Amino acid sequence: xxxxxxxxxxxxxxxxxxxxxxxxxxxxxxxxxxxxxxxxxxxxxxxxxxxxxxxxxxxxxxxxxxxxxxxxxxxxxxxxxxxxxxxxxxxxxxxxxxxxxxxxxxxxxxxxxxxxxxxxxxxxxxxxxxxxxxxxxxxxxxxxxxxxxxxxxxxxxxxxxxxxxxxxxxxxxxxx
Length: 176
What we know:
Elements: E1 9-12, E2 20-23, H1 25-29, H2 31-42, E3 52-56, H3 59-71, E4 74-80, E5 88-95, E6 98-105, E7 114-122, H4 126-137, E8 141-150, H5 156-162, E9 167-172
Parallel strand pairs: 3-4, 3-7, 7-8, 8-9
Antiparallel strand pairs: 1-2, 4-6, 5-6
Helix pairs in contact: 2-3
């Protein structure tokens, strides 16, 4: 029987030499694989009070929308700078290969709302940490962070757990 990890393809030397890119588009394209991933991502939160799902740009939108639908809660995107039309707050962070800024609408989360943060991959944890900081600035309470893939050698899980976050990932890949 196939696992979620079996649906993920690896592309060597993308976007830079020495990087093993874990491509979830093959997982998303397969109806069984996609359903399996969403169901498994939802499982730890059965019976947990969640008000909104926050998806991190960009593959977190695909996962977050499906998870929010299954939970019957709202979905909030955290986007790259300049992509949201309304009034936003922003957060700078470091990527594996540079720096970036993400934003969230300043009225997307109300104080005290319980938030599930979703993305496809946890590498260094920089994007997730930036998203968490935005949510917390708006008064949201992070219930957990859910990912398909963890890259343990890059330290993202440890980084988020050091911030007091609960972290779930469906599978892990060794190396970069």
